Amino acid sequence: MVDRYRTVPGSAFEVDWGSGYDLVLLTNFLHHFDQETCVGLLERARRSLGEGGRVLAVEFVPNEDRVSPPFPAMFAVMMLGSTPSGDAYAAREFEEMGRAAGFARIRVDPLPPSPQSLVTFEQA
């Protein structure tokens, strides 16, 4: 199993990610950046995938009203105050970013009992 898992040290914005991966994990990462930067990261992730590969992100996903559920909504405020341009994105925004990055299917599923959600980006 160890020979099938690899981390890539360095900046996600600068290093060569490699290719042919079945899975790329972007856990608790996208909310630190603006949507344009997220699209760029998702594009890099998509290019590193092999056929049938997918990207999984774990994120706080508020509803479209941006005030519920309480924890993801509060997390958006924390990102506003602690990052230059981060946010807690609604499901629709993840779908838009995923499509802009070239993914065909984007799904957001809750991860109870956690207040976070699993965002899955899949190729065609």
Summarize the structure in words.
The protein has helices at 35-48, 70-82, 91-100; strands at residues 21-27, 49-59, 105-110, 117-122. With 124 residues, it is α+β, with helices and mostly antiparallel strands. The protein has a single domain (19-122), classed as Vaccinia Virus protein VP39 (Rossmann fold). It is globular. The two termini are 27 Å apart. The mean pLDDT is 95.
Number of strands: 4
Question: SS-based structural class?
Answer: alpha+beta
| Radius of gyration (Å) | 14 Å
Strand order of the largest sheet: 1-2-4-3
Which CATH architecture? Answer: 3-Layer(aba) Sandwich
- Assess the beta-strand content as a share of residues: 15-25%
Write out the CATH superfamily name.
Vaccinia Virus protein VP39
Show unreliable segments. none
Whole-number average pLDDT? 95
Number of domains: 1
The topology string of helices and strands comes to: EHEHHEE
Distance between the termini: 27 Å
State the helicity in percent bands: 25-40%
Instruction: Output the number of helix runs.
Output: 3
Q: Major β-sheet, in short?
A: 4 strands, mixed
Shape: globular
CATH class: Alpha Beta
The CATH topology corresponds to Rossmann fold
Structural key phrases:
124 residues; Rossmann fold; four-stranded mixed beta sheet; globular; alpha+beta; 24% strand; 30% helix
